């Protein structure tokens, strides 16, 4: 007979249940910060689209929120009081290769550590019981073209640049890099608009006067399998 007990007397099912509850709690806190972040930017920026959990770059990391304004593509990393910051330096470095601005939206408990560990090009906004405060504004950067291309599926690149279907995805990206380098950032903007504008419009319609935790899922990408 299989023994599902743990040394401390907690069964396997109980242990899994505890882990699931912890993950749900962390997801709730993350989404509550996202809701505050979205409301903050809807009041202060001309947001063309906002998207939830966007995969980007050659490392295929995921940024918590992506914002598109008339001038900038913005990556936002969310860190609640329950999160640690060990992965944050790498996250902002990689995001800075793809987006023109990178911002960290953090709990006030992390303020001092964030100021110490993050490059001065990264914006910092602190969340506390008093609201949201801009501690440092982000600098505008020039993304790396190959990293931006890695954030756009080959199917979209083929359609956007009218490239033959039989070209391998790696060759396609080299072809775009060599022949259309000045248009890569514009292509990226068009990709973000296509992928998020419908859901963003629905989100704004359903949101009411402020964003709620349950609204965040509306901002996910359109459900579609894409070949990279």
Descriptive report:
With 228 residues, the protein is an alpha/beta fold. The protein has a 6-stranded mixed beta sheet with strand order 1-2-3-4-5-6, sandwiched between helices. It is globular, with a radius of gyration of 20 Å. It starts with 11 loop residues before the first helix and ends in a 21-residue tail after the last helix. 31% of the residues are buried. The mean pLDDT is 88.
Summarize the structure.
The protein is an alpha/beta fold. It is built from seven helices and six strands, in the order H-E-E-E-H-E-H-E-E-H-H-H-H.
Question: What's the topology here?
Answer:
Blueprint: H1 12-44, E1 49-56, E2 61-68, E3 73-79, H2 88-95, E4 101-107, H3 111-117, E5 123-128, E6 131-136, H4 145-149, H5 154-161, H6 169-179, H7 184-207
Parallel strand pairs: 3-4, 4-5
Antiparallel strand pairs: 1-2, 2-3, 5-6
Descriptive keywords:
alpha/beta, six-stranded mixed β-sheet, 228 residues
Radius of gyration: 20 Å
User: What proportion of the residues is helical, as a percent range?
Assistant: 40-55%
Lateral arrangement of strands in the main beta sheet = 1-2-3-4-5-6
Largest sheet: 6 strands, mixed
Structural class of the helix and strand makeup?
alpha/beta
| Percentage of β-strand residues | 15-25%
The average pLDDT is: 88
Oligomeric nature of the chains: single chain
DSSP summary, beta strand count? 6
* Helix segment tally: 7
N→C terminal distance: 47 Å
Regions with little confidence, pLDDT below 50 for 5+ residues: none
Backbone shape? globular
Query: Topology as H/E string?
Result: HEEEHEHEEHHHH
């Amino acid at each position: 007979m299989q023994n599902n007990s743990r040394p401390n007397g907690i069964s396997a099912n109980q242990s899994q249940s505890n882990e699931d509850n912890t993950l749900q709690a962390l997801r709730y806190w993350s989404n509550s910060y996202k809701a505050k972040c979205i409301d903050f930017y809807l009041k202060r920026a001309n947001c063309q689209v906002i998207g939830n959990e966007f995969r980007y770059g050659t490392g295929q990391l995921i940024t918590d929120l992506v914002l598109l304004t008339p001038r900038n593509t913005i990556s936002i990393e969310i860190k609640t009081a329950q999160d640690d910051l060990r992965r944050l330096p790498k996250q902002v470095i990689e995001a800075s290769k793809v987006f023109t601005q990178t911002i960290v939206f953090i709990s006030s408990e992390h303020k001092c550590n964030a100021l110490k560990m993050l490059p001065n090009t990264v914006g910092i906004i602190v969340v506390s019981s008093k609201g949201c405060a801009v501690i440092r504004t982000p600098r505008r950067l020039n993304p790396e073209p190959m990293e931006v291309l890695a954030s756009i599926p080959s199917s979209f690149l083929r359609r956007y640049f009218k490239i033959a279907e039989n070209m391998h995805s790696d060759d396609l990206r080299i072809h775009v890099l060599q022949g259309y380098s000045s248009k890569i950032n514009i292509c990226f903007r068009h990709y973000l608009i296509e992928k998020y504008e419908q859901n963003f419009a629905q989100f704004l319609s359903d949101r009411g006067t402020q964003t709620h935790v349950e609204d965040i899922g509306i901002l996910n990408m359109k459900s579609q399998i894409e070949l990279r």
